[in-house]
Structure formats: C-alpha cells, structure tokens
Amino acid sequence: MLRESRGTIVTVSSVLGHLGAANLSAYSASKAALLALHASLRAEIAQQPNGSDIKTILVTPGQMSTKMFAGLKTPSNFLAPVIAPVDVAKEIIRLVEGGESGEVAVPLYSRWVQVLGCLPVGLQVLIRRWSGVDTAMVELAKSQKVVLEKK
What we know:
The chain is mostly helical.
C-alpha cells in the first residue's frame, strides 16, 4: 500500500473490545488488541509521506445476528438491537467506495460505549447489571448446554 500510495485497511473489532464481558475474556481481549492495532497503524501511516491516500476504517459493531451469538438475549431490542452482518457490511462498503477513512459503530449505543469507562464505578456497575453484558453468556450457555471458557 505504501508503494502504491493508496489502499484501505479495515479493522473489525467489537464493542466488547471497549467494554469486555464476563465469560468472554479471550474474545474481548482479542477485540481490544484490534483497537490498539488499528490506532497504531493509523499513527504509523500518518507519519509516512506517501500514506495520505491510505484510508483506515475501524468497525466496532454491537451484537450481530451470527451463529456465535445465536440465542443470546438482549435486555432491550430498542436500546440494544441485534444487527445483521449485511448492515455492517453496507456501512464498510459505503466508506470504501467513498474513499473515506472512518468508523463503523452500529447500532447507536456502539458509538457511545466508550463513555462508560468515564463514569463513576458505581454507575458502571449499575449499567452493566442493567444491560446484562456480564450474565448473557451464562444464560446462553445454559440454554445451549455449553461449557464456558475456564478462568
């Protein structure tokens, strides 16, 4: 890409890279690593004289309707809707075709989840409890009779 002075790098992470979740330690850690990788790549490209036309797109979707999370219950389909992978793909394609760098964070709460870390700890605990982020995988495992990763 540097040789050609053009291209697009798409990094697909997850809202759980910002948030983490009980019983998804390895998944959340790998998604957090992708966030750091993306930030580092973006900084490195910005330092290259021929990197100005290399675009970067960070994708941090919320819960998607994939096999991995099939059957996972969200506390509110209005506030935390499950999104289709095709909807995420459409947003990525829109940016790529437009020759733009940017972020794809859908649904709406995915754009604001980073703010959670700035809130007082007690409020974070209440929001996590209300959202079900730390109990959802346990309930899913029970319904599917799956053993969660060992701690």
